[in-house]
Design brief:
The chain has a single domain, classed as Nucleoside phosphorylase domain (Rossmann fold, 3-Layer(aba) Sandwich). Helix content is about 30%, strand content about 25%. Strands 1, 2, 3, 4, 5, 6, 7, 8, 9 and 10 form a ten-stranded mixed beta sheet that branches. The relative contact order is 0.23.
Length: about 240
Amino acid sequence: MALGIIGGTSLVGTKLLEVAKKREVNTPYGTVYLLIATVQSDEIVYIPRHGKDSNIPPHRINYKANIRSFKELGVEEIIGVTSVGSLKRTIPPQSLVVPHDYISLCGIPTFYENEIVHVTPELDEVLRKRVIGAARSLGIAIVERGVYFQTVGPRLETRAEINLIKDYANVVGMNMASEATLATELGLRYANISTVDNYAHGIIAEEALDYKDIVEAASKSRENVEKVLLKVIEEMA
C-alpha cells in the first residue's frame, strides 16, 4: 500500500524524492502533478501542494483534485506536512507539532456539493501515533497534541485575529484542515506534521512577519521531517 505525502514550504527540495517519476493524474476536479518514488522498498506518492513550480498560492490550491488523486491511485494513508505559525510562546520556531484536532470555520471544501451528507472530520489517531512513535524512536522532539487553526490565505493574519484565536488553538496555518476534511469524506486516513516556522503575528511583540523569512525557517526543519517520514516508511515495510 502506497503512502501519500502532501508537502509545501517545509518539503521544497526534499531528498526523499531525489529519484522519482513525474506523473499527472486526471480527476473530475482537475489534473494533479505528482511524484512517485520508491523509498525503503515502499511506494510513496508525493503531491507538492503549491504545484510543480511552487507557484500556486494557498487560496488557489485545488484540494479536491489533490485528495481525489490519492484515491484514484489506491492510497489509503496520507501525511500532510505544513508550515505554521505558533500561537503559544511555549511552542517556539523549529518545533514539530502533530495536531490532534483542528478548527476551520470558513471556506470549507466538500465533495458533496449536490448531496446532503454530513461527515465528522477527524485526524487519524493510529497514523498520528505512528508519526509520534517514529519521532520518539529517533530522539526528535515533537509536540504530540495541538489544535490547528486554519485561516484563509494568501494574506497572513492580523494581530487582532491572532489575539482572538490564540486561546483556542496552538498553531495557525492555511492548508491542513481542508485536506483532512476531504480525506475523511473519501474514507482516507490523514495525519499531519506541522513545522513551526515563526510565531504568529503579535505573539512576540517585536516579531515582524515576512514570507521569505518563513520559507527560510521552514528549510531548517526539513531534515527532521525527512527523518520522521523515513522512519514511518521503514516501519510500514
